[in-house]
Amino acid sequence: MANIVAIVGRPNVGKSTFFNRLVGQRKAIMDDESGVTRDRHYGYAEWIGKNFTVVDTGGYVHGSDDIFEESIRKQVELAINEATVILFMVDVEAGVTGLDEEFANVLRRSKKPIYIVANKADTFQRGHQAGEFYALGLGEEVFPISSQSGSGTGDLLDEVVKHFKTEDEENPDEGIPKIAIMGRPNVGKSSFVNLLLGEERNIVTDIAGTTRDSIHSRYKSFGKEFILIDTAGLRRKTKVHEDIEFYSVMRSIRALEESDVAVVMIDATRGIEAQDVNIVGLAIKNKKGVVILVNKWDLVEDKGTNTAKEFEEMIYEKLAPHNFMPIIFTSVLTKQRVHKAIEKVIEVYENKRMKISTSKLNEVMLKEIENYPPPSIKGKFVKIKYVTQIPTHNPTFAFFCNLPQYIRESYTRFLENKIRKHFGFEGVPINVIYKKK
Ligand SMILES: Nc1nc2c(ncn2[C@@H]2O[C@H](COP(=O)(O)OP(=O)(O)OP(=O)(O)O)[C@@H](O)[C@H]2O)c(=O)[nH]1
Ligand SMILES: Nc1nc2c(ncn2[C@@H]2O[C@H](COP(=O)(O)OP(=O)(O)OP(=O)(O)O)[C@@H](O)[C@H]2O)c(=O)[nH]1
């Protein structure tokens, strides 16, 4: 089971700053204007050898009937449901505010361990003022910290990790593909997700809560188990338009980072467009498996025997030199080939984890290399001695040779093509690297 730390608190106390410090990347969106962190953000962190997930909740404004704020409130509750430990962040500069008290009232109902994190305690003097938060009558202890400088965070984390389960527990999600569904607006992402989760919905496990909107929920659909990343954002449409594009891009990127396989949906009625090419490029750059769905296939009129083939060629041409992604023609509306799409995703995931033995690899590849050795450059002859697959998260092949610097890009493509020809790896980016030997 995962260890989850949720950071909650009213807007502008420094949740994003603290989150970024823990996660070590600028994953959350930060802004001086309050209320900017509008979505649940999560990332992975580590403290003295213990790994955990950090959830940064957006600002929570009580008693408002604004839909957007309502959804924020829900997300906070969700975070609370899912958390192993709750960090309730307050601001020593501001002292106890009415909103802090309202937060405390909600949090008091939670049975989870809660720590009050008194942020912006940049100086010793400020640290002393943190004592006033004991008045909230909540939590195990108040920890003065400065998210900006990092002071005090170590003591806090030492306490927090005491609540974690031990590391040697098996990851229950090991071997289950994490899927991100990507694509331009209106291509059918929500419909696809709803089809997967809707009628044949069958939640296998949830990290903690019972809600379907869990951060990493495992589903079984069409007979396959998988984890959909950040589906809440896909299915729940807010009525607020400001910055929606920005947030949807952010969400896609985040979902992509967390996933093993990206399902990229293309609209059959529009063909492949620049934005689609960008999305696929992003997935490949991130070394994710890719499955392309050409959706709304039902809307394509007068389909002949070659229509799909022509479509495929057009896509590969636009994505050149990448031609390893499977393409499935689907209609989410009529459920045509949706089952096949899911099967393909699982297959690509398995390809991504595939390991080829060194003996097999050398047997096959050294023969190919002998038939077509690296062309000599400036009188230099490159001699490749052996090849091995390096144990990494995505297929990486190291070719050991005398003069790695004299190998051209085109020869790398040749090697990649031969690996694919013999061993498959459909849908998965391959790394070919050279080492001096
Ligand atoms: N002095 C000081 N300022 C801080 C510290 N941590 C954060 N801030 C500042 O406080 C402001 C709000 O920080 P954020 O991290 O955006 O706060 P948030 O709680 O995520 O805010 P919302 O997105 O509105 O929920 C920013 O201007 C930060 O630079 C700190 O330790 N000391
Ligand atoms: N004919 C047809 N319509 C479809 C298909 N898939 C989705 N649609 C329709 O296309 C429209 C957009 O679908 P959504 O699922 O909302 O698309 P989305 O990609 O989630 O859109 P955004 O949330 O804007 O990014 C809806 O009216 C769907 O009913 C399909 O396979 N065939």
TrEMBL record:
Transmembrane segments: none
Native species: Adhaeribacter soli
GO molecular function, one term: GTP binding
Family: Belongs to the TRAFAC class TrmE-Era-EngA-EngB-Septin-like GTPase superfamily. EngA (Der) GTPase family.
Keywords: GTP-binding, Nucleotide-binding, Repeat, Ribosome biogenesis
Domain of life from the UniProt record: Bacteria
Protein name: GTPase Der
Binding partners and assembly: Associates with the 50S ribosomal subunit.
Function statement: GTPase that plays an essential role in the late steps of ribosome biogenesis.
Annotated ranges, domain EngA-type G: 3-168, 177-353
Annotated InterPro entries: G_ENGA, GTP-bd, GTPase_Der, KH_dom-like, KH_dom-like_a/b, P-loop_NTPase, Small_GTP-bd
Binding site for GTP 1: 9-16, 56-60, 119-122
Binding site for GTP 2: 183-190, 230-234, 295-298
PANTHER family: GTPASE DER
Coiled coil regions in record: none
Pfam family, one: MMR_HSR1
Xref: HAMAP family: GTPase_Der
GO biological process, one term: ribosome biogenesis
Cited CDD domains: EngA1, EngA2
